[in-house]
Amino acid sequence: MQQRLIIVMVRIVTSTFFRRIDVVGLDNIPTDGSIIFAGNHPNALMDGWLLTATCGKWPLHFVANAKLWKYRLLVPLLNATGAVPVYPREEFGEDADNQTALSTLYDVIESGKSMAIFPEGVSHAESQLIKLKTGAARIALTVTSRGKGKAVIIPCGLNYIHRHRFRSQVLIEFGTPMEINQAMLDHFQRD
What we know:
- By secondary structure, the chain is of the alpha/beta class.
- The chain has one domain.
- The chain contains seven helices and eight strands; from the N terminus they run αββαβαβααβαβββα.
- Strand 6 and strand 7 form a beta hairpin.
- Helix 5 packs across helix 6.
- The radius of gyration is 16 Å and the shape is globular.
C-alpha cells in the first residue's frame, strides 16, 4: 500500500512539474531480473524521481548524496523510496566510507530488485557528460562475480528543455541493455 502511494505521488509530482514527459525505449527494459539504470544527472532529485515514475520497476533504489539526509522534510521520502546514501570523497574527504552503501546495493541486485545510479556523481547543467565514475560497472561486476545474482545495465538519457522551469518538457531515453559477459568478468577479476 505504501509503495503504491509513493509511486502515485512521484508520478503526480513529475507530471505536474513537467507539461510533457516523453519516454523512448521502454521496450529495452527487461520485464524480469535486476536492472541497474545508469543515467546522466542534469536535475538533482528530479532525475531519480523521473526514472522511478517511468521505468516500470518498483522499488527502484537510487543512489543519493548523503548530504540530502540533512533536510528533515526529504528524509521520509528518501527512505520510503529506498534511496541509498553515498559519501563522495570530493565532499566528505578521503575517509568517506561507502562500504555500507555498496553492501546495500549488492543486496538490492542479488534479491532481484533494481537500482538507479548517476555515474557522473554530481548533478550539473553542462551540455555534455562529465567524467564518469565506476560505481555502476563495479556493482554489476561484483554481483555477477559473486554468483548470487546478475544485472543488466540500462543506459538512460534525461534531456530537459528547461530543467527548472515549471511546466517544461523532458525526454527520457532507455538504451540497449548491457550484459556482463565472461570477458568482462575475467578482466574485472584480474584488475
